[in-house]
Amino acid sequence: MERTFVMIKPDGVKRQLIGPIITRFEQKGLLLTAIQLMTIEQSLAEQHYGELQSKPFFSELVHYLTSGPVCAMVWEGQHAVANARALIGKTNPVEAAPGTIRGDYALDIAGNIVHGSDSTENAQREINLFFHADRVDPMLFHMTGYEDSGN
Ligand code: UDP
């Protein structure tokens, strides 16, 4: 079973889109195994987007990510990385298809509402950055136990 890291960025939280976004992932069939509302520090934002350090928009991106609370989540299920990316839509909301989160809720690439890991390796790296293992596993254990109990 695969896991991915999804983060509702500050504009998504400000616009009170946590509920509708979570609903889309749940309706798809993915399982929420960790969630945390948090305001992140510059160093965490820089580490998270480390691969983009040389890009001209990097400092604007870090500033944006630290401008208010984010909602960090771990979602689990078959092809969780690719399925989450499909729900989220293309990076530039102009190109994101209607029906995707960015296609429906965002106008501008600099404020595109939500992040989803682009590979299983990055998903694990990002989950480790944002969650201690004990924040993910108890919930997972709980959900697995729930399923096993036949409910
Ligand atoms: N971004 C931006 N300007 C650009 C390209 C990207 O502000 O020209 C931001 C945007 O918020 C994007 C994030 O940088 O979500 C990470 O970019 P990436 O290429 O990894 O896209 P993603 O994986 O988020 O679709």
From TrEMBL:
Its EC number is 2.7.4.6. One of its GO terms (cellular component) is cytoplasm. CDD domains: NDPk_I. The keyword Cytoplasm applies. ATP binds at K9, F57, R85, T91, R102, N112. Keywords: ATP-binding, Cytoplasm, Kinase, Magnesium, Metal-binding, Nucleotide metabolism, Nucleotide-binding, Phosphoprotein, Transferase. The active site is at H115. It catalyses: a 2'-deoxyribonucleoside 5'-diphosphate + ATP = a 2'-deoxyribonucleoside 5'-triphosphate + ADP; dZDP + ATP = dZTP + ADP; a ribonucleoside 5'-diphosphate + ATP = a ribonucleoside 5'-triphosphate + ADP. Pfam families: NDK. The keyword Glycosyltransferase does not apply. InterPro entries: NDK-like_dom (IPR034907), NDK-like_dom_sf (IPR036850), Nucleoside_diP_kinase (IPR001564). Homotetramer. (Microbial infection) Catalyzes the phosphorylation of dZDP to dZTP, when the bacterium is infected by a phage that produces the substrate for the synthesis of dZTP (2- amino-2'-deoxyadenosine 5'-triphosphate), which is then used by the phage as a DNA polymerase substrate. Major role in the synthesis of nucleoside triphosphates other than ATP. The ATP gamma phosphate is transferred to the NDP beta phosphate via a ping-pong mechanism, using a phosphorylated active-site intermediate. PANTHER family: NUCLEOSIDE DIPHOSPHATE KINASE. This is Nucleoside diphosphate kinase.
